[in-house]
């Protein structure tokens, strides 16, 4: 019996549980801090530009290290890699909790990010190795609970903690869980995937950092600074050039840091395209809803987070169910149904008004998340199923990297669409003499508050309409999904069939 067969006969559930917890706290931590940024600004006397680096820096480290995760996963044992990643994350969490100065907090966030960047690709790779193709849907569905629920719960939990305690409590809550996971992993973790004696190409790492780091930084700042800002278009151009050079170098190498030749497998290429489109569409609600409910409607941050909580719970419940349905029926039926729901709910969001009921917003958002729960993991798993086992680390690294980049691009695109539509609407309203300047107690030359809110609503509605069109594109692509198996398994099954024919 081969190692692979043995592993498939009895997957390492204990090890996967440890990896699940590590990935959960890492992902939860990624979204915890956003609500607390105003409190941190007040404590350390820093402005919006400085404090935003707590999120931007975290994202950049992820964007730089995730592409390199394919090398780390192949070169080092699962146990050593996870312990190293969890140690860095735990150290960063502790430093953030006790940070006496802002620069210490920023350094702590980057140390956290250097650990969390490895956890998600490592977990996905272990699960691909531990389960046979026909059972991967259920396994990856369970993984979807971590991937989807943790970031969605983050804002709600953060809002409640910041309202009742100091922002440091955000790290105090995570620290004991991270520390316990680290201790357990030292004694209980074992190696599942094999290692290969490969060397890290330093030039590839530099080009990857410039490429993905430049794109992430440029697009993440486009919404605030505007597309005509030299920092924005300069870093995007540098990132694009770096990425092109990185791809060219990888295609010329026998042992690339990140294997781009996996795109010769059509279902993996299709799953990547759909995942990019979905990530752009999904970010619309995550960004636009808080702006709508807090800025326009005046709903508190914690109630804003609670609005999104049922959707997160539904996604968490649906992930394992969707995984089992994927094993039975494949990805296409699930993706088509899920994306149809996403398209319809996104269109309804483009019609929200100043007095749309809170309960209506909750229902719409929950149904939208229900639709998306049927898409992301089945489509991603179907694409990974077509790859040979040796390319699994590259497939997981590629998917995680694309999610980071497409999320930043989607955010920039939708915020820009919203701002442009808002400005046009405000200009039209002011030209037609709209707005109650006296009631709004506005200063001379400023925009009346009711006009500003109406303009923002028009921008949000139009952004959701653009998101609807983007989701329609994903729906069209989903019609071309086919159920696949890894090449080696297809070859083995073909030989069995040939033998049967020969005997007959």
Automatic annotation (TrEMBL):
<dbReference type="InterPro" id="IPR011701">
    <property type="entry name" value="MFS"/>
</dbReference>
<feature type="transmembrane region" description="Helical">
    <location>
        <begin position="167"/>
        <end position="188"/>
    </location>
</feature>
<feature type="transmembrane region" description="Helical">
    <location>
        <begin position="81"/>
        <end position="99"/>
    </location>
</feature>
<feature type="transmembrane region" description="Helical">
    <location>
        <begin position="143"/>
        <end position="161"/>
    </location>
</feature>
<dbReference type="InterPro" id="IPR020846">
    <property type="entry name" value="MFS_dom"/>
</dbReference>
<keyword id="KW-0813">Transport</keyword>
<dbReference type="InterPro" id="IPR036259">
    <property type="entry name" value="MFS_trans_sf"/>
</dbReference>
<dbReference type="InterPro" id="IPR004638">
    <property type="entry name" value="EmrB-like"/>
</dbReference>
<keyword id="KW-0472">Membrane</keyword>
<dbReference type="Pfam" id="PF07690">
    <property type="entry name" value="MFS_1"/>
</dbReference>
<feature type="transmembrane region" description="Helical">
    <location>
        <begin position="458"/>
        <end position="481"/>
    </location>
</feature>
<feature type="transmembrane region" description="Helical">
    <location>
        <begin position="200"/>
        <end position="219"/>
    </location>
</feature>
<protein>
    <submittedName>
        <fullName>MFS transporter</fullName>
    </submittedName>
</protein>
<feature type="transmembrane region" description="Helical">
    <location>
        <begin position="268"/>
        <end position="293"/>
    </location>
</feature>
<feature type="transmembrane region" description="Helical">
    <location>
        <begin position="333"/>
        <end position="350"/>
    </location>
</feature>
<dbReference type="GO" id="GO:0005886">
    <property type="term" value="C:plasma membrane"/>
</dbReference>
<feature type="transmembrane region" description="Helical">
    <location>
        <begin position="362"/>
        <end position="380"/>
    </location>
</feature>
<comment type="similarity">
    <text>Belongs to the major facilitator superfamily. EmrB family.</text>
</comment>
<feature type="transmembrane region" description="Helical">
    <location>
        <begin position="12"/>
        <end position="33"/>
    </location>
</feature>
<feature type="transmembrane region" description="Helical">
    <location>
        <begin position="231"/>
        <end position="248"/>
    </location>
</feature>
<keyword id="KW-1133">Transmembrane helix</keyword>
<dbReference type="GO" id="GO:0022857">
    <property type="term" value="F:transmembrane transporter activity"/>
</dbReference>
<keyword id="KW-0812">Transmembrane</keyword>
<feature type="domain" description="Major facilitator superfamily (MFS) profile">
    <location>
        <begin position="15"/>
        <end position="486"/>
    </location>
</feature>
<feature type="transmembrane region" description="Helical">
    <location>
        <begin position="53"/>
        <end position="74"/>
    </location>
</feature>
<feature type="transmembrane region" description="Helical">
    <location>
        <begin position="111"/>
        <end position="131"/>
    </location>
</feature>
<keyword id="KW-1003">Cell membrane</keyword>
